[in-house]
Structures are given as structure tokens and as C-alpha cells.
Design brief:
The chain is mainly α. Helix content is 47%, strand content 0%. It has one domain. Pfam families: NqrM (PF04400).
């Protein structure tokens, strides 16, 4: 039981030190390899048809025309290396 508490205390201390470092530097947190933008995608979802939220916006007439136009073209595929 002593080992578990010691380990837990160590992790809490490390997380606390990381949070202090983050507060002092004031930088935003970002990924190490560029994430989804490295694949050439602008958004997380490259779906072939609009989601329910966008469909309701289209029905209301409040949808962004660029976002709607995205679904009227051929699907694009990205090569992942």
C-alpha cells in the first residue's frame, strides 16, 4: 500500500510541476507532429454527406455556403505516409 501511495504522490507532483510550467510559459498546447493538418485536411470530419447539425442549418437557410459546397464535389483521398 505504501508503494501505491508513493507512486500516486509522484504522479501528482509531476502533474503539478507540468501545470506550473504551462502557466509560466503561457503557450498553447499543441501536438508534436502537426496532427490532422499534416494530412492536408482542414477539419476533423471529411465526410461524404453532411451531418445532422449541418442538415438542420441547410433547412433553416443559415448554413455557410462554403461548407455546403464541400459536399457537392468528388470525395478526395489523402495518402498517409
Amino acid at each position: 500500500m505504501e508503494t501505491v501511495l508513493l507512486t500516486f504522490g509522484f504522479f501528482v507532483a509531476v502533474i503539478f510541476a507540468m501545470s506550473i510550467g504551462f502557466i509560466v510559459k503561457g503557450k498553447t498546447i499543441k501536438g508534436s507532429c502537426g496532427g490532422i493538418t499534416a494530412l492536408g485536411m482542414k477539419k476533423m470530419c471529411d465526410c461524404e454527406e453532411p451531418c445532422d447539425n449541418l442538415k438542420s442549418k441547410i433547412a433553416d437557410g443559415t448554413a455557410d455556403p462554403e461548407e455546403v459546397a464541400r459536399f457537392n464535389k468528388e470525395p478526395q483521398f489523402y495518402e498517409v505516409k
